[in-house]
């Protein structure tokens, strides 16, 4: 969704505001990464601000100065192991057990090892307040501690200016509500739904973080382990794109990863099929290719990279069939030619 369907000003603005919130509290002024430095995080696969924000804050707290962000990204990337969050790699790079700041005790454990826990992670709590604004309290049942308007509503802009292709689904790491065919629950931020509304795609199925949050609460597991670049995420999106319910597609995708085939994915095995993914993340294209291979040798995956240039484009060119500067150019080149 971000950098494909949307120009994602909202998340970057929230990241900058969050890092500056903590660097100011430590008495160091504004030390947040620039947009080019944020791009370096994303090109390395560190695409979630739930990682880049606490990594940046921890580095500032340790050094007391503005990080050399490109070097920081390189060090974390070199340490990052499969199946873990980038913040866990950052934690191993840091020997201190506690970070003392002028704002009281900023505990390294809560900052880097509980980065997805809204009640324990100071960075996540502040980031979500900037992201959601007034919707924070309703989403999490927690009081706001800062005054902030939603950066998503203020800074996101539509990138898509073409009709969505038939049999489409939104494949995103953004937080979402639970699957739309199950009852609502507390703690699910409707961030992908806000983006879909902005580009006129609210009618499409959405498979995002909240989808896997629901799946983990229902059958067990770690939501992030299911999230792209895991093939589970892509398989669920494929199931939803052909018209199956979101919850049914999620259950079938998890089972397929264990080589147990349930409807609607069971019916797709062995038949001839093609999935086209429009992505700004090289790792996510690889995940969709893996999903297609699980469906059988008759399935083709066309990886379409979206990037106007820079390190992200270089990463995409290594794995994508083609790379376009925008999703509109990609749709024209792939589907309307």
Count of beta strands: 9
Largest sheet: 3 strands, parallel
Beta-strand content estimate: 5-15%
**Overall tally of structural domains:** 2
**Oligomeric status of the shown chains?**
single chain
Helix count, DSSP H or I runs of 4 or more residues: 17
Shape: globular
State the helical fraction. Answer: 40-55%
The CATH architecture category of the largest domain equals 3-Layer(aba) Sandwich
Low-confidence stretches: none
Structural Rg: 20 Å
CATH class (first level) name of the largest domain = Alpha Beta
**What do the pLDDT scores average to?**
93
- What is CATH's topology name of the largest domain? Rossmann fold
Would you list the SSEs in sequence order as H and E? EHHHHHEEHHHHEEHEHHHHEHEHEH
The first-to-last residue Cα distance is 23 Å
Q: What is the topology, as strand order, of the major beta sheet?
A: 7-8-9
**Helix and strand composition category:** mainly alpha
Features:
globular, 337 residues, single chain, mainly alpha, three-stranded parallel beta sheet, 17 helices, Rossmann fold
Describe the model.
This protein has 337 residues and is mainly α. It has two domains: 6-153, no CATH class; 159-334, 3-Layer(aba) Sandwich (Rossmann fold), CATH 3.40.50. 48% of the residues lie in helices and 9% in strands. It contains 17 helices and nine strands. The protein has helices at residues 9-25, 35-43, 49-63, 69-79, 86-93, 108-113, 122-132, 135-140, 151-155, 191-198, 209-219, 223-226, 231-241, 246-256, 282-295, 311-317, 327-334; strands at residues 6-7, 99-101, 104-106, 157-158, 170-171, 206-207, 273-279, 299-306, 322-324. The chain has a three-stranded parallel beta sheet with strand order 7-8-9. A two-stranded antiparallel sheet has the order 1-4. The protein has a two-stranded antiparallel ribbon with strand order 2-3. β2 (99-101) and β3 form a beta hairpin. It is globular, with a radius of gyration of 20 Å.
């Amino acid at each position: 969704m971000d950098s494909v369907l949307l120009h994602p000003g909202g998340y970057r603005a929230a990241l900058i505001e969050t890092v500056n919130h903590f660097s100011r509290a430590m008495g160091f002024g504004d030390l947040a990464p620039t947009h080019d430095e944020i791009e370096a995080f994303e090109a390395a696969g560190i695409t979630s601000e739930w990682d880049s924000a606490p990594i940046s804050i921890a580095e500032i707290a340790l050094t007391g100065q503005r990080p050399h962000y490109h070097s920081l990204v390189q060090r974390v990337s070199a340490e990052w192991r499969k199946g873990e969050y980038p913040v866990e790699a950052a934690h191993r790079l840091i020997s201190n057990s506690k970070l003392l700041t002028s704002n009281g005790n900023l505990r390294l454990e809560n900052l880097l090892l509980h980065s997805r826990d809204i009640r324990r992670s100071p960075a996540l709590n502040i980031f979500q307040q900037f992201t959601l604004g007034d919707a924070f309290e309703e989403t999490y049942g927690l009081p706001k501690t800062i005054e902030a308007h939603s950066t998503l509503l203020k800074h996101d802009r539509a990138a898509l200016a073409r009709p969505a292709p038939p049999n489409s689904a939104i494949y995103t790491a953004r937080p979402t509500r639970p699957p739309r065919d199950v009852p609502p629950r507390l703690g699910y931020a409707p961030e992908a739904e806000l983006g879909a509304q902005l580009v006129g795609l609210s009618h499409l199925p959405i498979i995002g973080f909240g989808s896997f949050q629901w799946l983990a609460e229902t059958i067990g597991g770690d939501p992030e382990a299911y999230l792209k670049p895991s093939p589970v995420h892509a398989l669920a999106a494929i199931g939803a794109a052909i018209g199956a319910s979101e919850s049914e597609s999620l259950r079938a995708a998890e089972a397929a990863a264990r080589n147990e085939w349930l409807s609607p994915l069971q019916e797709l095995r062995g038949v001839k099929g093609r999935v086209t993914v429009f992505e700004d993340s090289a790792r996510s294209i690889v995940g969709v290719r893996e999903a297609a291979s699980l469906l059988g040798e008759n399935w083709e995956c066309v990886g379409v990279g979206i990037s106007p240039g820079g390190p992200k484009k270089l990463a995409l060119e290594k794995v994508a069939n083609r790379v376009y500067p925008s999703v509109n150019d990609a749709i024209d080149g792939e589907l309307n030619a």
